[in-house]
# Entry
Amino acid sequence: MPSGYFAYLHDLLKQRSGLLVTPDKMYLLETRLMPVARKHGYRNLQELVDAMVAVPDEPLTVEVCEAMNTHESLFFRDQAPFEMFQETILPELLKRRAAQRRIRIWCAACATGQEPYSLAMILEQEVKRLEGWKVEIIATDISHSVLERAKEAVFSQFEVQRGLPMQYLVEHFKQEGEYWRLSRAIRDRVRFRPFNLLDDPRPLGRFDVVMCRNVLIYFDMETKTRVLHAISGAMAEDGVLFLGSSESTIGITEDFWPVEAGRGVYKRTDTPPSVAEQMN
Ligand SMILES: C[S@@+](CC[C@H](N)C(=O)[O-])C[C@H]1O[C@@H](n2cnc3c(N)ncnc32)[C@H](O)[C@@H]1O
# Structure
């Protein structure tokens, strides 16, 4: 692809969703955008870009940006963060928030919903301890189409086989032909809404737990810093941040310190570590 066309797509994607496409990922532009080009009657990406430049077309621009996103997700992804949530973070919050009896969780790039629903299933398991508590899970993503899928909460056999313990499948899903529908009780624990991580998250309120997993990997350093800073501003002082297993705040921002970097768990730097945490 001629460099001017690549530069146009590179800048558009970085500006709109933070996605960094380096020249070695040119093939990704081809594989993901050619179906969009063909759907709109263009023979190649040059024709698609020419059309976008000639007449600004917001729905087409959104379609192009959405097509470039990776929506891969699975239930209880990496397992350890969810164990840590259930075994350490939630019990701590139940002590710390005993006066308010309210906990707010944000899944910041929730894709098709497996992550917030995994948390919701854990909460359902802890339902006795949570009696009289209000626990909110707000799940957001830039992509409207994945949010629609997430709200529908219907998963394929392949999707429920990846990471979901059998006990949860039996308890919370109903088979419908080749698909599995999640129960209303679990779905009702999660509220979905569109949100671009490049925007200010403070209107979403203050969160005790934020999961922002497997999305920072697609951003450049400047965008990672900006997004992490914005997230820290939307967190309670003693809030906990979960990142993906190949992501870290180290060397990117000093807004967080690693509680257990191996498990992707971080706290805001203005919260000093407890004695137990210092010994970790
Ligand atoms: C690989 S999925 C991660 C899903 C889930 N967090 C997990 O770890 O399984 C990345 C998600 O980030 C979303 N995303 C990409 N850029 C975004 C942005 N600027 N704001 C919000 N979401 C974004 C994509 O639409 C995609 O659904």
